[in-house]
# Entry
Amino acid sequence: MSDCLFCKIIAGEIPSTKVYEDETVYAFRDIDPQTPVHVLVVPKTHIESASAVTEENKNLVADCFAAIAKIAKAEGLDNGYRVVTNVGEDGGQTVRHLHFHILGGVKLSPKIV
Ligand code: 5GP
Ligand code: ZN
# Structure
């Protein structure tokens, strides 16, 4: 998707602080971190949101979670962390490319969720 911010980051057209990359997944630090560790994990293939996951692309979600486990270990989140994906307008999704927030490095509020 030529006008997608995260597709541009994946392509290296917009700079990012990379923390992980493999064949299908790219991960980078959030520009406006909400927690001491705040990493965004995205499939390299453009998928609009969790609502656009299908039989055909669902393996990319598994790839993202395999990456999340590795990143959490590398970031020292041994005491736990939270993974969040916002979906659509009511979910607060501002970038329409599926992404998983890894939030950690602090004891998170028991709310949400
Ligand atoms: P959403 O609100 O869609 O769930 O999450 C989008 C996230 O992308 C936000 O946490 C926001 O801070 C982050 N973000 C927006 N633009 C950029 C950018 O240009 N670079 C990086 N690294 N993060 C961004
Ligand atoms: Zn995209």
About this structure: Residues 58-74 form the longest helix (17 residues).
